[in-house]
Design brief:
The chain is an alpha/beta fold. The chain contains 16 helices and nine strands. The strands form two sheets. Strands 1-4-5-6-7-8-9 form a seven-stranded parallel beta sheet. The chain has a two-stranded antiparallel ribbon with strand order 2-3. Helix 15 links the parallel strand 8 and strand 9.
């Protein structure tokens, strides 16, 4: 990481150092709420966008150029690891991701490969292009899906409302679940280290469906593997952000995996979470993204209220409690970022 990035608001906040204002970026900041995203999306399939380094770089740069955020996040998808392992992945408009060969038996798990990081070289290539374009202006965040979340897509064959098949595997065949999770964790560790080598300045692990789990199941089937991944990263000078839907409940366990930052959903009081964590762990969040549908006066009031609550705390990165919704008005997202950048002191 360059000295310039070490001095950036985002990196300083991620390492719990003092900053003159909280840095801001937003999950799904390069996405469907932008007309410019659709200008690209209408010409290519989603997987083409992810796998073509120049296009992935173009999309990554949209919020840098249009929103003025304090950190970029690479445009990709959490399921590229599962596809590299042998999942037959497709994306359908209005349906989302599908695996035509779901993983439900011991033989299915045996068929998944782990020596596949070379298949993800297109991600490393995109990182290098983005870093050339950023030219040290702001840091670049890389990411991966957590083993449990990736597992749920593989087992269900796509998105799920109740994760019934995944939970059946956890409860009835835990040894199968652990074999599958261990394979995904091995690939994920290698994949994140590939991103570090390619030049990312920070990493985020997305456990998007952790809130589906009971405490004991989260501990055994998710936290255990996230801990192994973080322990296996070449993380010197690279802050690691741990995000899960359910972090308002799971934050104490998440801290035991030793991330630098915990990204908190909107169900918790952010200051209470921060004070409950070990010293030196920063927090990211936790504005309810639905606030961005509201009138601008409401948006500003909520941002100021959260900022006042966190005032005087080192280690606070302004973000949403989850990602930007596709139909949010672009002007409202831009307004929120402008308020954070220009009116919070």
């Amino acid at each position: 990481m360059s000295t310039k990035q070490q001095d950036s608001l985002f990196i300083k906040a991620a390492f719990s150092q003092p900053t003159e204002r909280p840095p801001v970026w937003m999950m799904r900041q390069a996405g469907r709420f932008m007309k410019e995203y659709w200008d690209i999306k209408n010409r290519y399939s989603f997987l083409e966008m992810c796998k073509t380094p120049e296009i992935a770089a173009d999309v990554t740069m949209l919020p840098v150029d249009l929103l003025g955020i304090d950190a970029a996040i690479l445009f990709s998808d959490i399921l590229v690891t599962a596809e590299a392992m042998g999942g037959d992945l497709s994306f359908t408009q209005g349906v989302g991701p599908r695996f035509s060969n779901p993983v439900r038996t011991s033989d299915d798990i045996d068929r998944l490969e782990t020596g596949v990081v070379r298949k993800l070289q297109y991600v490393a290539d995109a990182i290098k292009i983005v870093q050339q374009r950023l030219d040290g202006k702001i840091p670049l965040i890389g990411f991966a899906g957590s083993p449990f979340t990736v597992m749920s897509y593989l087992v269900e064959g796509g998105s799920s409302k109740d994760f019934k098949l995944t939970k059946l595997m956890l409860h009835n065949e835990p040894e199968l679940a652990h074999r599958l999770l261990a394979k995904i964790a091995e690939v994920t560790t290698g994949y994140l280290n590939l991103q570090i080598e390619a030049g990312v300045d920070a990493l985020q692990i997305f456990d998007s469906w952790a809130s589906a789990l009971a405490w004991d199941d989260y501990k055994e089937f998710s936290h255990t593997y996230i801990s192994k991944i973080i322990a296996g990263l070449n993380r010197q000078d690279i802050p690691i952000i741990s995000f899960c839907k359910g972090s308002s409940v799971f934050a104490p366990l998440m801290a035991e995996a030793k991330p630098d930052v915990i990204s908190v959903d909107w169900n918790a009081d952010l200051l209470n979470v921060k004070k409950s964590l070990p010293s030196g762990i920063a927090v990211q969040g936790n504005l309810d993204p639905h606030i961005l549908y509201a009138d601008k006066k409401v948006i500003k009031d909520r941002i100021v209220k959260l900022h006042e609550r966190m005032k005087g705390e080192n280690g606070f990165i302004f973000n949403l409690g989850h990602g930007i919704m596709p139909d949010l008005p672009f002007d409202n997202v831009k307004y929120a970022i402008d308020v954070i950048k220009n009116e919070l002191t």
